[in-house]
Design a protein that fits this description.
The chain has 154 residues and is an alpha+beta fold. Helix content is 29%, strand content 39%. It has a single domain, classed as SecB-like (Bacterial Protein-export protein SecB, Roll), CATH 3.10.420.10. It has a four-stranded antiparallel sheet.
Length: 154
């Protein structure tokens, strides 16, 4: 295999694309001592930017509520520009759905924890995420859903 046909994977840039913090019930929420219920949501998407260059965005949403009151809401879109060349088409999606979010997640985790701490709350430490398991689960769900024109067997 000629050297210029070797697979290439490199990180060109990692950056915070969007960051949002809401503390809608401040300052009263700081007087409540009740432990909040914390919900975490993850979403990733990839976009081609040109010849073998892709932007992958991992969006982390953290919501903390005390009963019906929202303590805080944070949404962080951690992005990266990746050069991915000479990778077979069937392997490109897993690289962007597993490898890239694995690289971005520690940065997103730090951004979320820092902004929550700066808002006056205890930092939320996000647990590690298995992006491969999420990808596999998404594939299984897509395969189990009937295709257009297909009649589901019951």
């Amino acid at each position: 295999m000629p050297e210029n046909d070797q697979p290439v994977f490199s990180i060109e840039k990692i950056y915070v694309k969007d960051l949002s913090l809401e503390v809608p019930n401040a300052p009263q929420i700081f007087l409540d001592r009740e432990q909040p219920a914390v919900e975490v949501g993850l979403q990733s998407e990839a976009n081609g930017l040109g010849d073998g260059v892709f932007e992958v965005v991992l969006t982390v949403t953290v919501t903390a509520k005390q009963g019906e009151k929202t303590q805080f809401l944070v949404e962080a879109a951690q992005a990266g520009i990746f050069q991915i060349r000479n990778v077979p088409d069937e392997e490109l999606e897993p690289v962007m759905a597993i490898a890239c979010p694995n690289i971005l997640f520690p940065y997103a985790r730090e951004t979320v924890s820092d902004i929550i701490n700066r808002a006056g709350f205890q930092p939320v430490l996000l647990a590690p995420v298995n992006f491969e398991a999420i990808y596999r689960q998404r594939l299984e769900q897509a395969q189990s859903q009937p295709q257009p024109g297909e009649i589901p067997i019951q």
